[in-house]
Specification:
Blueprint (H helix, E strand, L loop, with lengths): L15 H17 L28 E5 L5 E3 L2 E2 L5 H11 L7 E6 L5 H13 L4 E5 L9
Parallel strand pairs: 1-4, 4-5
Antiparallel strand pairs: 1-2, 2-3
Length: about 140
């Protein structure tokens, strides 16, 4: 009996099932991904002109946020730092002022939530021009 070593077939890797699994995973991730567009805030930064002339004084609505989160509206301190109190202070000032913009000045140590609350309250009154003012390190903050 003569036994010859037979030629063994070369092993093959079948990629069809692997490609099917990858495509199914791709479809799964595409379907389950949520495409939520976050709210955007358009900020227009102020520009400084070199002319030393100041424009005529116009009535402004200025909201100042202290380091502790207290609000000062047109140099009048509010009794507490709730949004309702800020809203009531703005309601009192709106008939006296004919403005369409608000300036928010915040201390560097003020929380973001306090500034965002001030922006939110001003936005609910329809103010679309909200300026965020800064002061230099040499200026004293109230």
């Amino acid at each position: 009996m003569k036994l010859r070593p037979g030629s063994r077939p070369e092993p093959e890797i079948n990629l069809t099932s692997l490609i099917d699994v990858v495509l199914l995973l791709l479809v799964f991730f595409m379907v389950t991904t949520s495409f939520v567009r976050e709210s955007e805030l358009t900020i227009r930064l102020p520009e400084v002109s070199d002319s030393g002339e100041h424009s005529t004084e116009v009535p402004v609505l200025e909201i100042t946020v202290s380091a502790t989160g207290r609000y000062i509206v047109n140099k009048r301190a509010l009794i507490d730092s709730r949004a309702e109190t800020l809203r009531a202070a703005i309601i009192k000032l709106i008939p006296d002022l004919d403005v369409d913009s608000v300036t928010i000045t915040a201390d560097a140590e003020a929380s973001h939530q306090s500034v965002v609350t001030a922006m939110d309250v001003a936005g609910k009154f329809g103010f679309v021009n909200i300026s965020i003012a800064t002061v230099s390190a040499t200026d004293k903050f109230q």
